[in-house]
Amino acid sequence: MTERKPLLTASSPFTCRAAACLHVAWLCGLLLAVAHPAHAQSTPQELVQATIDNENAAVARHERYDYLSTERSGRTGGHVWTERVVETAPGRVRLLLAVDGKPLSADQMQKERARVQQIEAHPEIFIKHEQNTRGEEKRARDMMEVLPRDFLFENVRLENGVWHMSFRPNPDYTPNGIEERILHAMAGKLDIDAHDLRLMRMEFHLTQDVPIGFGLLADVHTGTTFLSDRQRIDGRWHTMHVATQVRAKAVLFKTVDLNVDVYRSDFKLLDHELTVPEACQRLLR
Asked: Does the global pTM surpass 0.85?
């Protein structure tokens, strides 16, 4: 095996869709963009739409980074993993450095380096594994397009160069599909940089339980939350922190708690698109 498998899985198709909607949409994508003057938008919906356009333009630039990630999630078995991450077009290649703040032993690091060497030798296995994740990221990014029509924006104010607003579901809009139904049951807050029109902070919380398959497949419960914090560093926007908690009862009465808490730092812009073997070599040098 060349890739650590998640230690937490779910038996229902709800998990990947809801996680994509709540987590990957804003955890992994949405980096650089083109600035628009803040006065060009006359309504909150137009302001949010311009921000979404900027985020989509950022994704299209295909800039990749080398950075440090500190994560506690199902993938890490509830432990805190510190990893060095190198982005490639197929996905993120990772090298584990520490667990719960304790650096790997010499033997553990040797095994971890051997795992990355396996990815370098057989990148096709890694790429196949990552294709499903990339597909869910694309699905989740597409969901952002419904924000201006799916929500009503209130308490809009400009303070110290930042647009602040709260949002709630638009009762006149009927959602389609599982992802939109979950999104439509959420409320929260947005902070948008007024100069660049880039997303700085997003908070979601589920306002009511959402049954899936008439409650036969799963119920997504209140207590489901999403938080994303982003900063402009050296002229580029980065997602610094993402925290997601999905509470649901899936088929066979299995309770699903999907908790992800990720911090990122020490971003280095890659000067060219790396292949998976090149990313492995960068991590191993």
From this structure: no
Longest Cα–Cα distance in the chain: 60
The winner for highest mean pLDDT among 121-130, 157-166, 173-182, 209-218 is: 157-166
The whole-angstrom distance between residue 278's C-alpha and the CA centroid of its chain comes to 24
* Residue 233 phi, psi (nearest 5): -125, 125
283's tokens: 């991590």
- Residue 138 vs residues 82, 94, 146, 208, 258: alpha-carbon distances, Å: 26, 21, 14, 26, 20
Q: How far is CA 69 from the centre of its chain?
A: 13
Sort residue 39 into left (φ over 0), alpha (ψ -120 to 50) or beta. Answer: alpha
Q: Give the model confidence (pLDDT) of 111-158 as tens digits.
A: 999 999 999 999 999 998 887 666 445 555 666 677 788 889 999 999
Sequence letter at residue 252: L
